[in-house]
């Protein structure tokens, strides 16, 4: 344990969903493992007038599923302090400062402070400005800020927000969360690539036909309709998670596995993603919105009748697209991406589709010479969630007389026990922020470039009225998403809808 874990967390938005579902359990897991010493304290702030005792009950309830003993839960919760606080009221920061100083003494925190902004981004600027003006940052020790997504709603707003935060915190002290970067298998992408010559030597346009990234959700918008209807799938998922995963897949090998070296390569990869013209957007990106649908015996309402969604909404709940990366490694290799709500199955996975052998010598005698090789491609699949692992599909000989080939899948999955015992995304990320490691956070240059890419798509789309709704809940999106690959001679490797269709359940 390092002395860095002597720290005061101040959580803005302490009564919110994120704090309860993710932050308190993650802090408890760190505490239980000893990654957080007894020298830590948490100030939870939000508007509700809670007492410390009530706050302790909330924290204990949030960690109940981790089955702490009563004593453990009590001891952990005793580190939490609640401060009713309206972030726009400057006088509240004076009170907050007093409590901060008191806890700094009590727990011997050496002035180390981590501010977690778990609330609406429209308050981020106000909060950091007030932290500075109240003098709360004028102490020894480190001062870091963890910021939740979304970081802006386009390049312009992100840039303004960034300038505001930069007035107070240096880039090295800003930890922009993209919780996908805390996931085990996203971190594993680098191990798969850089620890296996088999893959790294083939990781380029000579051997790879196309790359597919799918982030599918089977849920609808649930109670986030108000936010989602303003955002849509492109901004909610593509700008951050998808482009982050893409940059890890596409980057050059870093000279060392250090924060700076990795970040530099990721930024270079993002800079090589083609900025589309309007015409290119229409050709390479499609959007969708779900209407009601049925999957097996489950029935789903249409998006426009979800709570807090406009009944004439033109917000996309699905995006599929093709990114092109204009550099030596990837020239001509499509990176297909897709994400959406109310799809057939929940799952995040990556498929790396390798090129065919030059000639299929197993071609049957009836196949005309010169026609398409009919062997299935070799595919490396990386499963990110809900299962974690990877598989490789190869072609082998079918057992028996004669000589036919059949695909064989070499499959590795982390066991349920391994997954259970491995840290949660938020737990890893908080641990990293405590230790000053920002490898798995997004740097401003990455955020900025991702917005530039996405802004082009949004601007082209905003010029046309989409023909929504265009896919039934429970399917894998509109027909256009399948046509997008078909016109290039490819198809989506992952088609969970097929199973249901074959059984007439969809
Ligand atoms: P939430 O609406 O549940 O909570 C918001 C919190 O902000 C509450 O504690 C509320 O009391 C507080 N608040 C609002 N106005 C305030 C004011 N004027 N002064 C003081 N406090 C005020 O939101 P959430 O779901 O917890 O999300 C918080 C942030 O995390 C958002 O930026 C969101 O986009 C992001 N996020 C959330 C999730 C999630 O799973 N919930 C996932 C990813 C990102």
Automatic annotation (TrEMBL):
Stated name of the protein: Glucose-6-phosphate 1-dehydrogenase
Keywords (A to Z) from UniProt: Carbohydrate metabolism, Glucose metabolism, NADP, Oxidoreductase
Domain Glucose-6-phosphate dehydrogenase C-terminal intervals: 191-492
EC numbers, comma separated: 1.1.1.49
PANTHER family with a match to the protein in the record: GLUCOSE-6-PHOSPHATE 1-DEHYDROGENASE (PTHR23429:SF0), GLUCOSE-6-PHOSPHATE 1-DEHYDROGENASE G6PD (PTHR23429)
Active site: 241 (proton acceptor)
Pfam families registered for this protein in UniProt: G6PD_C (PF02781), G6PD_N (PF00479)
Domain Glucose-6-phosphate dehydrogenase NAD-binding per the UniProt entry, residue ranges: 11-188
Entry keyword Transferase: no
Family recorded in the similarity comment: Belongs to the glucose-6-phosphate dehydrogenase family.
BP term (GO), one: pentose-phosphate shunt, oxidative branch
Species classification: Bacteria, Bacillati, Bacillota, Bacilli, Lactobacillales
């Amino acid at each position: 344990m390092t002395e860095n874990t002597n720290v005061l967390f101040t959580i803005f938005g302490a009564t919110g969903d994120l704090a309860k579902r993710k932050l308190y359990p993650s802090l408890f897991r760190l505490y239980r493992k000893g990654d957080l010493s007894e020298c830590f304290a948490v100030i939870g702030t939000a508007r509700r007038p809670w007492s410390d005792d009530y706050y302790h009950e909330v924290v204990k309830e949030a960690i109940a599923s981790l089955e702490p003993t009563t004593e453990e839960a009590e001891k952990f919760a005793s580190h939490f302090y609640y401060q009713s606080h309206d972030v726009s009221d400057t006088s509240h920061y004076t009170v907050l400062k007093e409590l901060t100083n008191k806890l700094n003494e009590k727990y011997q925190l050496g002035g180390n402070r981590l501010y977690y902004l778990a609330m609406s981004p429209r308050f981020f600027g106000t909060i950091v400005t007030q932290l500075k003006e109240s003098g709360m940052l004028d102490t020894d020790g480190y001062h870091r800020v963890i910021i939740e997504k979304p970081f802006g709603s386009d390049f312009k707003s992100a840039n303004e927000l960034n300038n505001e935060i930069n007035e107070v915190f240096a880039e090295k002290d800003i930890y922009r969360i993209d919780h996908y970067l805390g996931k085990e298998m996203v971190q594993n992408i680098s191990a798969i690539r850089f620890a296996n010559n088999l893959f790294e030597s083939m990781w380029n346009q000579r051997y790879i036909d196309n790359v597919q990234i799918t982030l599918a959700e089977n849920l609808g918008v649930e109670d986030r309709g108000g936010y989602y209807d303003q955002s849509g799938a492109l901004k909610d998922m593509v700008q951050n998670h998808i482009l982050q995963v893409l940059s890890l897949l596409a980057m050059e090998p870093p000279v060392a596995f250090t924060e700076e070296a990795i970040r530099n390569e990721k930024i270079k990869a993002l800079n090589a993603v083609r900025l589309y013209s309007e015409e290119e957007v229409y050709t390479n990106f499609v959007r969708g919105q779900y209407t009601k649908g049925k999957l097996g015996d489950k029935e789903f309402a249409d998006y426009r009748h979800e709570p807090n969604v406009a009944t004439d909404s033109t917000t996309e709940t699905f995006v599929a697209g093709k990114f092109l990366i204009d550099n030596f490694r990837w020239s001509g290799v499509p990176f297909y991406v897709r994400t959406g709500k109310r799809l057939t199955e929940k799952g995040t996975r990556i498929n790396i589709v390798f090129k065919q052998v030059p000639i299929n010598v197993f071609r049957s005698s009836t196949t005309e010479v010169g026609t398409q090789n009919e062997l299935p491609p070799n595919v490396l699949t990386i499963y990110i969630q809900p299962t974690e692992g990877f598989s490789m599909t190869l072609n082998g000989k079918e057992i028996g007389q004669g000589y036919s080939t059949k695909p064989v899948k070499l499959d590795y999955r982390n066991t349920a026990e391994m997954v259970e015992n491995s840290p949660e995304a938020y737990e890893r990320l908080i641990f990293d922020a405590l230790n000053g490691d920002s490898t798995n956070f997004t740097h401003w240059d990455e955020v900025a470039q991702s917005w530039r890419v996405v802004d082009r798509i949004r601007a082209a789309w905003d010029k046309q009225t989409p023909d929504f709704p265009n896919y039934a809940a429970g399917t894998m999106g509109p027909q256009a998403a399948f046509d997008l690959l078909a016109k290039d001679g490819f198809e989506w490797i992952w088609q969970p809808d097929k199973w249901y269709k074959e059984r007439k359940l969809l």
